[in-house]
Amino acid sequence: MAESPVQSDEYDIISPKTISPITIGVGFLLFINFISGHAFTTNKWLAIGSSVGVAIFGLSHFIPSLKFGKAHAFYLYVYHWLLSFVLIFVVPTMSYYLYLWILFMYMAELFYQAKGVMLSRIALLITMITGVLYQQNTINGQSIFRITTEFLIIVGVSTVITRQSFGNREKRTDMQNKILRAEFEHGRMVALINSMSDGVIATDEDGKILNYNAAALDLLDTNATLNNLSISDYLLVKNDQGDAIDIMQIARDTNYLQRRNDLYLDFGDDDKMALDMSISRIARSTALAKQQGFTFLIRDITLQKSLDEERDLFISEVSHELRTPITIAEGEMSMAVLLADKPQPDITEVKKSVEKAHDQVVYLADMVNDLSALSRAQRDDAEMEVETFTVNDVLSGLQEIYGPQSEKKGLYLNVEIAPSIPEITTSRLYFREILQNFITNAIKYTDKGGVTIAGQPVDRDHIIISVTDTGPGISKSEQAKVYEKFWRSEDPLTRSTGGTGLGLFITAKLAHRIGAEIKLQSKLQEGSTFSIVMPIKAVKKIDEANLAKDEASRIFS
Fold it and tell me: What are the φ and ψ backbone dihedral angles of 471, each rounded to 5 degrees?
């Protein structure tokens, strides 16, 4: 027989725990049969030797010096030969010992399938025929009938036992595989839930917590073990009006799935978290019980709500700021049309209306430009071209543009740049736009004196560029507000001057993008100084994300 691949201890019935006690018991019974006179042989040495040999072979499983290894084939051969020898020479062939062959056939089919059981059946038939011939010296019709009957009984019983055992084994194997798959799926689901950034809490129908993930603990701001605790004691939510809400009442009112984004988790002391919560009802009927419960999927949307509110406020402010100049421009153009339709139109009045409308259109254009610049400043992922240049290059261009404007108002525009100021590496566009906002504001709000632009090194890695005017100045109470969008001073002297209120807000955003810092020094009736302190080589700080994105694009393209 070829060695079978079946090696599992679960089905290895030739182990010391199973077959050895049977073998030892058979040896003991052989000796008892001889003493009681039920043995075939009258040779006491043959009987005693057979009994002792069978018992020793059974004990060989426990005695290392007598152990023959774990080869199934060897033990099956020996068991077959021992039983054949005993049935032929020691006990009557047709004795109850013959039914031990049922066990042998089971083992043969277990380890060697059809080929093994066929060889075992042939060995049984040969043993029965040989034993009857040896013990009776003849075979008659009665012997043939007895041999056939016993053979069929043994074969039939062994087949039934084998099939039943194999069926149970297949069921056990299938059950074990299902358990392993279920454990694997459960482990995978647990890993998936624990990897989620959203909090997940599962409860029974009474609100007792059954399962939860790490994100749920973070949202609830606790390290406590939540199993079997009430979710209502930890998920203390309120609505937009600040009224306490029973989360389990919401869950019980849920037919299948309910989503709420108007709830807040209240931690006390005005500390609250906006939540986006999906509540699902779980109802499952099994053969054993009807299980019900709820699953809570919780997400922190505090930042999202804050951004939404800020966006809505921004849209409202932009709409308001756009509506005023549009209304004025429309009114002035309507007035110009009415004046022009008169029989003798006053060209001077028409021109005034058109100029006023034109001023409002220019104001709208400035606001659109500011909004475009604001969009660029607020996009951290926007492309930013970085280059190396001198500060004088930028200031010379700005002086050419704003020098005539300052002269028109009777103001001076001086540029005082230290010769030791080095080249800088940053976004020329953003740097120029920041200084341009400083200069335009200084000229706009200054009626006497002028504007001075100065620049010098701060240390080996930074420079400072300042724009100083001799305007009305800004009060200390208003200095903290100058970088807010659409903010305008309440001072009548400055309020009368046109402006979108976005310039310094955009300037602060652009400065952040190039790694610079904005400073303000101002005193009422003396003027203001806006300064920008920036690194000489800002590219390493602010363009790292863009460099990584460009490299990734290059690789994947």
Answer: -80, -160
CB 298 within 8 A of CB 198: yes
d(Cα 383, Cα 493) in Å, to the nearest integer? 40
Pair 152, 270 in one domain: no
Instruction: Read off the pLDDT band of 13 (50, 70, 90).
Output: low
**Model confidence, pTM:** 0.46
Residue 529 lies in a domain: yes
Identify the domain containing residue 495 by its residue range: 383-544
Write out pLDDT tens, residues 17-28.
Answer: 566 777 777 777
Region class of 141: left (phi > 0), else alpha (psi between -120 and 50), else beta = alpha
Identify which of 516, 535, 513 has the alpha carbon closest to the alpha carbon of residue 425: 535
- Residue 14 lies inside a defined structural domain of this protein: yes
Q: Using CA atoms, how far apart are residues 67 and 70, in angstroms rounded to an integer?
A: 8
Q: Is residue 332 part of a domain?
A: yes
Is the same domain home to 64 and 163? yes
Q: Read off the tokens for 386.
A: 């970085």
Last residue of one domain, picked from the residues 275, 300, 325: 300
Considering the domain architecture, whether residues 72 and 217 belong to the same structural domain is answered as no
Strand, helix or coil at 356? helix
